[in-house]
């Protein structure tokens, strides 16, 4: 069934409510603890940052997660993914080695087999000092047949000839940390099959739901804790097949502009 279900909940609680092996592809960008450092330095003005704390805009802040929370989240993402599932998790160069180490060195705790770091080249530089950053890491994780993992199934990427660097201009006038729709579409096209369930527990701008491949038919689970995300997604243009069927399900029976009918959904 083609549905987009939108929930407003803590990401970890949201995942804990999902059944085992119920998601084929998970794409997300958690708000890591490393963001707090740059807010205080003042290089994240879009997110309310400023070196003078009196000039920081608290209304632009969203709650970050620490390393312990990330570990619990990592285990929940492993649990909800099918044995042929793919995980794409955006991160910076500080968090990337933490995640890749867990994938490779903590295999008694999860069912991932291996990972590969993809690079999103944002074309334009960001703010900062020293060498200014213009890239972001995307850790791609998948299953491999190994001891302790039974029932393994291999999910091949559609195009095995793609490079691991993706060049898309950063979004400069949208939701904070919004990802380019074309980048998300490319990742989803590589991993998704008809009937799959796609999930983003930190959906932010809702781009994962808006950037579905043209040939995709299935379910999308979007969640974010913040009111700002819910307000922003009311203006998101979701794919026509979902809008026409009024199969965008909002928490608390929110109205969906442009739809003739809406359906409420519990969180």
Question: Can I get a quick summary?
Answer:
The protein has 267 residues and is α/β, with parallel strands linked by helices.
How would you summarize the topology of this molecule?
Blueprint: E1 3-7, H1 11-16, E2 23-28, H2 34-41, H3 67-80, E3 81-91, H4 95-105, E4 114-121, E5 135-142, E6 165-167, H5 181-191, E7 197-200, H6 207-210, E8 219-223, H7 227-233, H8 240-244, E9 248-251, E10 263-265
Parallel strand pairs: 1-8, 1-9, 2-3, 2-7, 4-6, 7-8, 9-10
Antiparallel strand pairs: 3-5, 4-5
At the fold tier of CATH, the topology name of the largest domain is Rossmann fold
CATH class of the largest domain: Alpha Beta
Residues in helices, as a percent range: 10-25%
What series of H and E elements makes up the topology? EHEHHEHEEEHEHEHHEE
Q: What is the number of independent domains?
A: 2
Termini separation comes to 19 Å
Q: Could you give me the name of the CATH homologous superfamily of the largest domain? A: Vaccinia Virus protein VP39
Q: If strands are numbered along the chain, what order do they take across the biggest sheet? A: 6-4-5-3-2-7-8-1-9-10
Count of runs of 4 or more consecutive helical residues: 8
Global mean pLDDT = 83
Q: What is the CATH architecture term of the largest domain?
A: 3-Layer(aba) Sandwich
Oligomer state of the chains in this structure: single chain
């Amino acid at each position: 069934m083609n549905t987009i279900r939108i929930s407003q909940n803590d990401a970890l609680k949201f995942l804990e409510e999902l059944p085992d092996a119920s998601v084929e592809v998970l794409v997300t960008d958690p708000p890591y603890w490393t963001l707090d450092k740059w807010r205080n330095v003042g290089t994240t003005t879009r997110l309310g940052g400023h070196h003078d704390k009196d000039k920081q805009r608290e209304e632009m802040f969203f709650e970050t997660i620490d390393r312990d929370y990330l570990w619990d989240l990592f285990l929940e993402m492993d649990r909800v993914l099918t044995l042929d599932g793919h995980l794409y998790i955006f991160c910076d160069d500080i968090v990337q080695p933490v995640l890749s180490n867990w994938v490779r060195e903590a295999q008694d705790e999860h069912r991932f087999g291996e990972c590969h770091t993809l690079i999103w080249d944002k074309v334009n530089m960001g703010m900062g000092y020293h060498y200014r950053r213009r890239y972001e890491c995307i850790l791609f994780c998948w299953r491999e047949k190994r001891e302790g993992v039974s029932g393994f199934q291999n999910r091949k990427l559609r195009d095995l000839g793609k490079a691991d660097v993706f060049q898309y201009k950063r979004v400069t006038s949208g939701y904070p940390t919004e990802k380019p729709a074309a980048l998300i579409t490319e990742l989803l096209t590589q991993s998704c099959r008809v009937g799959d369930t796609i999930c983003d527990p930190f959906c932010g701008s809702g781009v994962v739901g808006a950037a579905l491949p043209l040939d995709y038919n299935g379910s999308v689970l979007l969640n974010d804790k913040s009111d700002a995300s819910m307000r922003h997604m009311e203006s998101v243009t979701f794919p026509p097949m979902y809008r026409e069927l009024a199969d965008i399900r909002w928490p608390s029976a929110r109205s969906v502009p442009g739809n003739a009918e809406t359906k409420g959904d519990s969180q």
